[in-house]
Structures are given as C-alpha cells and as structure tokens.
Write a structure and sequence with these properties.
Elements (H helix, E strand, L loop, with lengths): L2 E6 L4 H11 L4 E7 L11 H4 L9 E2 L10 E4 L3 H14 L3 E3 L6 H10 L4 E4 L5 H17 L5 E8 L9 H14 L3 E4 L12 E8 L5 E9 L2 E9 L3 H14 L5 E3 L1 H5 L2
Parallel strand pairs: 1-2, 1-4, 2-3, 4-5, 5-6, 6-12, 7-9, 8-9
Antiparallel strand pairs: 7-10, 10-11
Helix pairs in contact: 1-7, 3-4, 5-6
Length: about 260
C-alpha cells in the first residue's frame, strides 16, 4: 500500500529532490506539493519543477482539501514550518520537520502541537548522521572525566543561512550532556589563553557547494579520535526524510525522532 505524502517547500533544492526520489519509490506517492503562492513556479507541475516526468500535482500555496495525505514532509524555512504546522494540527496530519534554523519559540510550538498529531523532528535527516549521534554519545560517556578536549567542525555550502548547523548544535548538546562541559565557544580569535577543560569549540566553514560535513574531535595529550560524516549528495537527507514519512504515517500523536526510525 502506498504512503501518500505532501511536500512543503517543493520548489526548493531539497523539495525538488524529495519529489524526484519519491517518483522512483513504488511505496510512495506525492499528492500535494506546497510552496509560496508568490513563487514564480507556483501552479507548475511538481514533477516538471523537479526535473522528472510530470506527476499531475501542481505547486499550490496550501494543501487541497480533497487530498488524502498520510504524512507531510516540511523542508522549507521556519516561517513555512509554522504555517504548515497549524494545518497539520487542524487536520491531524503526521508531520516530518526537516527544516533547520528553528528557534526555541518554534520548538516550543512544535512540542505543543505533538499533543495533537504525530511529529518527527530531527536536526538531520541523514541516516548516518543519526547513527553518529549515538556513537558520539557513547564516546563522550566513555571519555568523560579522562582529560579529553572536544571540538566540532562543520562544513556547508555558501548558501546555507544558519550557522552553526543544527546538526553541529545537536552534537555539542550530546557532548555537553555526557561530559558536563560548561561552555560552547564559536571560533577563537586573539590572545585567548590556554584552552580551558570545560569548553567545546564549534567551528563553521561555508564554502562552495559542500553538501555537509561534521567532524567531532576527541583529543587528549598523546592521542586523538575523530568521528566524521561526509555528505556527497542532498539525496541522503531526502531519502532519510522519505523513510521518516513512511515510519510516521499512521502513528499516534507524539514527538518522534530519527532514532525511532532507526530503532536506536
């Protein structure tokens, strides 16, 4: 049986890949494609916009009332997330949120909405990144209190609007919780003195068309361990979001993560 999905942000780079990859998956069917009604491609066929054969689904500003939807995938901007969140609560539609750059107020509203419908929220849709979250937690717990410094370096394309990435922030939080580090430092400049043991350095690189890389460095006197993820195509994030939609369809109201999808 097919999972019928709606894609919010269908004209964006990730939205287009979701449409294209869903067309290759016999278990999925795109039944609604959403973007700003002011977008120059509003009204166009979503398949055509994504560079694949037409699928008969026009780009619209809201979900058609006639559409039968099992799950909505949001890969847009925070304002777009908040708009589709209300629709999903009103219509009790499961929602996968893959948008980054969300503020605390957005997250609070999402947590409240999870009382009404199923919501999956993750700082990254990559399956490997979510496994790396688990490995980072295990490593940080094992090395806590043993003289290790932790630095996080993330690299993304020049077009990325938020910095550091939501994924890097999540890695930092995992380390903080496990190792009780007290402070996060975003880059360093000038005479800052010796590195205190209680800080985590987070560094953001923006260059070219880098899809996304994250390196978590655990280093002590005499040895270093690095946990690394390198993304070579946006498809890894899109495929993760599509898998999440399959998982979330039919789930009861509540907050879910990619760890639930992966059984972690």
């Amino acid at each position: 049986m097919k999972t019928h999905i709606a894609i919010n942000g269908a004209c964006g780079r990730m939205g287009q890949r979701l449409v294209a990859l869903a067309a290759e998956d016999a278990a999925l069917q795109v039944v609604a494609a959403l973007d700003s009604p002011k977008h120059p491609r509003a009204g166009h066929d979503a398949g055509e916009v994504a560079g694949v054969p037409k699928n008969g689904v026009p780009i619209t500003g809201e979900i058609p009332l006639s559409a039968r939807i099992d799950c909505v995938i949001d890969f847009s901007i925070p304002a777009g997330t908040m708009a589709i969140l209300k629709t999903c609560v009103d219509r009790k539609l499961p929602l996968v949120i893959a948008t980054t750059g969300l503020e605390k107020e957005h997250r609070d509203q999402i947590a409240e909405a999870a009382h009404e419908t199923a919501i999956l929220l993750s700082p990254s849709m990559s399956l490997v990144v979510n496994v790396l979250f688990k490995l980072t937690k295990l490593t940080a717990e094992a090395l806590a209190g043993k003289g290790f410094d932790v630095e996080i370096v993330e690299r993304h394309h020049r077009f990325k609007k938020d910095s550091p990435s939501g994924t890097a922030v999540q890695f930092a939080k995992i380390v903080q919780d496990a190792m009780k580090q007290s402070e996060i430092v975003h880059g360093r400049e000038g005479i800052v003195g010796e590195r205190p043991s209680g800080e985590i350095g987070v560094h953001a690189v923006r260059a070219g068309d880098n899809v996304g890389e994250h390196t978590i460095i655990f280093s002590a006197l005499g040895e270093t361990m690095e946990l690394v993820h390198k993304g070579y195509s946006r498809d890894s994030y899109a495929r993760g979001a599509l898998l999440a939609a399959k998982f979330l369809a039919g789930k009861p109201a509540g907050m879910y993560t990619m760890a639930d999808v992966l059984g972690l």
